Amino acid sequence: IHNVIFKNSDDASIVIAQEIAALIKEKQAKQNYCVLGLATGSSPIKVYEELVRLHKEDNLSFANVIVFNLDEYYPMEITNVQSYHYFMHEHLFNHIDILPENIHIPDGTVSQKDLYQYCIDYELKINAVGGLDFQLLGIGRTGHIGFNEPGSHPNSGTRIITLNHITRSDAAEAFFGIENVPKRAITMGIGTIKKAKRIVIMAFGHKKAPVVKEAIEGAIKSDIPASYLQEHKNTTFVLDQEAAGELT
Ligand code: F6R
User: Fold this and answer.
1) Where does the Glucosamine/galactosamine-6-phosphate isomerase domain lie (predicted)?
2) Domain definitions of the chain by residue range
3) How far is C-alpha 210 from the geometric centre of its chain's CA atoms?
4) Ligand 1 pocket test: which of 67, 70, 92, 148 has the largest number of ligand atoms within 8 Å of its C-beta?
5) Model's pTM, two decimal places?
6) Ligand 1 mean position to 237 CA, how many Å?
7) What is the pLDDT of residues 147-197, one digit of tens each?
8) Is the ipTM of this complex over 0.90?
9) Pairing of strands 184-187, 71-74
């Protein structure tokens, strides 16, 4: 694991977008697919903005890109503006040339009885295309990655989870009140994420400083799921100065 600290999140986001663009082009040159694991939330917005700019102004094509998003609330309608489906289309997919059949986002409308099999199939789909070449992550104040809340097993796969209270209160504003935030979500597991060949995890702002310190410098433990990334050989924490503020 290593850390890179930028003056601000915009500078950090541009460097991350450049790494993703370079990987897409490298795969294109070999006529290979590029399999990206993507996140939602506030942290990656500028990364997506920059990728859209590279598509429009620099001819970056996403025709060879396959995406698997980390998570989705459950239950959740695809058309709901709070859904991660909506977020990804709004910030990225509607503005690039990715093929619709190459977009995978956990489906918050799957019935309760089909959910178990649905999650297994999501995992199998990732494996069938050779696994994730690159996984982009944010970190929650609980230490979650994806929606792997404290207590998640290091080998966990895609599954339905119960959201932590802190996570739900952080989402309350977007849902106009905590009572409207779904109590559950579908998420890729820690094991799913750790199989990615490359992981970049972003944390911006002073509110993330305590959990960033624990994830990077603390013991590896299920209380802080992001600490499991210490065991991954090709992970970079990309921070701004505020999020890095408590590192020794
Ligand atoms: C989102 C996700 C979450 C967020 C995390 C940080 O798909 O998986 O783990 O990355 O909650 O969210 P922000 O970036 O809004 O601080």
Assistant:
1) 10-236
2) 2-240
3) 20
4) 70
5) 0.98
6) 14
7) 999 999 999 999 999 999 999 999 999 999 999 999 999 999 999 999 999
8) yes
9) antiparallel
